[in-house]
Amino acid sequence: MYALQQTGATDAAGGTRTWTFATGSIVGLPAGWMPRIIKPGNFERHAFGRGSVTGAPAVDFGVARLNGRDGGLDDLMLAGVDGQVVKLWRGEEGSVTDASTGRKRDPSFDEMELYLQGTSALATYSDGAVTLQLRNRQAELSSLPIQLLRYAGDNSLPDGVEGTASDLKDAYKPIWLGYNEGVPVPFVNTSKVIFQLSDASTISITGAAPTAVYDKGAELTATKVEKTTWAAFTHATGPSGELWWYSGAEGWFIRLESSPAGTITVTAQEGTSADTTAGQLCKRILLAHGVSEGEIAGVDALDGKASEPIGYWVDTSEHRIGDVMAEILAGAFATWTDDRTGVFTFDRLEAPALEADHTFYDWQLFRSNGEGFRILSGDEPGSPLPISEAVVLYRRNWQVQTGDDLSGSATDAYRAYAALENRQVANDNSAIKAKHKLAKPFERRTLFTTEAQATTAAARIVDLFGVRRFIVEIDLPTETAAAVKLLQTVSIPIGRFDWDTRNFRVIGIVDDLDEQTNASVTTLVLWG
Questions:
Q1: Which pTM value belongs to this model?
Q2: Residues 172, 147 contacting (CB under 8 angstroms)
Q3: Phi, psi values for residue 374, rounded to 5°
């Protein structure tokens, strides 16, 4: 039993209508429901991408098919369904015990499980069938620019911090989060020698005095002085023997006493350790783009596993939310997706727990063809081969500088630092080559800021991938797998390989819901 609701915009002002479809008569359905479901949907959800434990979290996808041969869904085809909410409910026939009679009955609409909440990409039509292209809620945000404001380019010098038509016009305003080094901040006012570290209107920031400011690699030693009002910071008479900084509603800025000799780079800490972990940075991004606090879960738990304060700088070119969050989460092997009810959920890849959340036996596998399980080939770390070494890149330098990029007064230590984008640490696991001769190193770029953080991360990567791992797909009846969630632990003691003593993490869930043949199948993608 399935019910599906699709919202669509029906006029130029954005007014909406919600259509309700079902596989048959269900008590409590909204008035005007239609029995048009051909296929409730096949939908894929993956923690990192199908069969992957290293890629960026992907926008999950699927389709649902409706009968529109008689023209009864022409109005749906004319509506704007892209980005609109779609919900799918599922119920088992005869699964409810009636309180008054004690007999089994079908669930009513309000007793059915909300199996999926997401968005539609578009509706297509072919051979009498309307196909809804479904996406999870990441589709609402992932492809959008993280920046909201662009420079107007309308400075009337000596006033203004919007650049001019010949430099910053229509470039995005930067965003500074956490601790960053060597950031090439944009020159927003050439008369008053003002540079902008961050916009403050997109994401609320907490700016502080820069740790260090460099001009062509030479550190500026002027006393750093905070100006607490915008008027004082932008006053006609500028600093003398000082470097001014300001953080407020207008943004985060520095002001120099004279024009620079070359590129100005800044090292600074925004916020505190508590609000610049991977989880907290991503939460701040979601909140700034319209997601409510109640629609975000797992951040505190992720903080307990990945508590390192980090940083990220978004420059003046376009950066998409999904790409930024993927880089922020990468060091922790963390992910963000949304659960069946549409709540954005954060977690990270861990070795399988000793206690399984779910156990599936050989007799439970769905065998329409073959054995009901498959071992995936590929080139993921640990699967099929363990890694021989973990290399972690850390302490990102946001502006690589060499040769003439640096002044003669730049120190040798700074020259060595500025020449590289990252530092690195390695953790050896070459003993594994005694058994796996083709084992190779694995490199991970992170936003960790200290050697200690990177060393801990490298050891963790060897724990995760320095042993032989399997990536497996198992097929189960949907009702058997309905309670499984991403990154839970599963055991499959089916008497093959060493799986009776090996547990797995769920890294993907693929639903193929088919009311027509009553053979709905869920494929779990497992790693362990």
A1: 0.91
A2: yes
A3: -145, 140
Beta bridge partners of 126: 129
Burial of 156 per CB tally in 10 Å (0-12, 13-18, 19+): exposed
Identity of residue 365: L
| One-letter-per-residue 3-state SS of 131-147 | EEEEECHHHHCCCCECC
Of 465, 389, 390, 391, nearest in space to 422 by CA: 391
Going from the C-alpha of 453 to that of each of 8, 333, 427, the distances in angstroms are 47, 14, 13
In this predicted structure, the answer to whether residue 369 has a pLDDT above a threshold of 80 is no
Which residue type, as a one-letter code, is found at position 208? Answer: A
Residues 339-353: pLDDT tens digits?
878 899 999 999 999
User: What is d(CA 275, CA 522) in angstroms, rounded to the nearest whole number?
Assistant: 38
- What is the predicted pLDDT for the residue at 370? 82
Please, what is the angle between helix 278-288 and helix 321-330, to 10°? Answer: 170
pLDDT given at position 78: 96
End-to-end CA distance of the chain: 34
Which residue carries 């932008």 as its tokens?
A: 234
- In single-letter form, the type of residue at position 61 comes to F
Q: How far apart are CA 383 and CA 53, in angstroms?
A: 10
Residue 232 parent element (H or E): helix 230-233
Among left, alpha and beta (phi > 0; psi -120 to 50; other), residue 211 is alpha
The Cα–Cα gap between 7 and 16 comes to 7
| CA pair distance 179, 309, nearest whole angstrom | 8
Residues 194, 160: Cα–Cα separation, whole Å: 10
- DSSP for residue 82: B
Sign of torsion over alpha carbons 406, 411, 412, 417: negative
Q: Count other C-beta atoms under 10 Å from residue 124's C-beta.
A: 13
pLDDT digits (tens, 9 = 90+) for 232-284: 999 999 999 999 999 999 999 999 999 999 999 999 999 999 999 999 999 99
One-character DSSP codes across 95-138: -EE-TTT--EEPPPGGGSEEEEEEEEEEEEEETTEEEEEEE-GG
Percent share of the chain, pLDDT over 90:
85
When pLDDT is cut at 50, 70 and 90, the band that residue 517 belongs to is: low
Q: Is the pLDDT of residue 58 over 80?
A: no
Beta bridge partners of 511: 43, 522
Quick one: CA dihedral 8, 10, 11, 14, positive or negative? negative
The size of the chain, in residues, is: 528
Q: Which pLDDT belongs to residue 513?
A: 83
- What are 311's two structure tokens? 């940083």
pLDDT value at residue 118: 86
The structure tokens listed for 259 are: 């024009």
Question: Cβ neighbours of residue 259 under 8 Å, at least 6 residues apart?
Answer: 190, 193
CB 524 within 8 A of CB 356: no
309 close to 449: Cβ distance less than 8 angstroms: yes
Token pair 């088992």: residue:
92
